Amino acid sequence: MTGTLKASAHRRAFRKLASPDALAEVAGDGQASSADKVFRGVVRGLYDGRYVPGQRLVEADLTRNFKVSRGSVREALNRLTAEGIVALNLHRGAHIRSLTRDEAFEIMDLLEVLIGLSARLAAQRIDQPGHRALLQGCISALADHERRAQFFEFVRARNAFYKALLQISGSNELKRVLTSVQVNLIRIQSRTFETGSGREKMRLEDYRAITAAVLAGDGRKAEAAARRHVKHVRELLSRLPRQTYPAAETD
User: Fold this and answer.
1) pLDDT tens digits for 167-218?
2) Is 61 exposed, middle or buried (0-12, 13-18, 19+ CB in 10 A)?
3) Half-sphere exposure of 102 (CA within 13 A, CB side)
């Protein structure tokens, strides 16, 4: 019975973080505005394959598809641009941003430091009420979705894991900086070359190592495990075909 109660607590903790907003931080709770609908729809569409890096976003199409006004579409595009998901070009208009190889590696360098710090801080605060259940719920969900091989659900579970580390860390400033780093675009651009490779299994082992160190309250070991995980991902990116990333654009 005790095990059942713990499992239920873990699932409840995970569901708090595995909402549609797990893919992108959207300000505000409660009823979504029309602009929120477009914003979230585009981000979700990236993972569903409806939108791809480099694809143009035509206002008239978005207005029709999401059944919102042009003003809401423009607000959403401005927010997507501010988040680094969309790029605005004088000649091309709005389009999903495509990262160059150098940009992708710069993001990974930042993530290594930031995720490492979040893991270390989380380990220092793991004994506060609810923190263990939250992290254990996230790692259980990751393992479950990895077995089912459901890409979008695995992504949601993975994002919930990172959000749990941030929440447990207690650092609002770290959360602000880390959620502004556009790692989603790296995942989308590399997805075509990663499917069926078994890399999710390798990453799950990394997540388990991070979780074990955080639950043990070992900040040094947690940071090392998190940084090692990001280095693994960076190594995988370095082996992807060159066509994964476009050449730098010139104005």
Assistant:
1) 999 999 998 888 778 777 787 777 655 554 455 566 789 999 999 999 999 9
2) exposed
3) 3
Q: How many residues does the chain have?
A: 251
Domains of the chain: 20-96 (1.10.10.10), 101-244 (1.20.120.530)
Q: Which amino acid is at 113?
A: V
Gap between the Cα atoms of 223 and 88, Å rounded: 37
DSSP letter (8 states) at residue 33: P
Going by C-alpha positions, the residue among 46, 34, 138 that lies closest to residue 83 is: 46
| Contact between 191 and 151 (Cβ < 8 Å) | yes
Which two structure tokens, joined as six digits, stand for 140? 């259980």
Q: d(Cα 17, Cα 134) in Å, to the nearest integer?
A: 9
Pairing of strands 86-89, 93-96: antiparallel
What's the rounded Cα separation, in Å, for the pair 47 and 150?
11
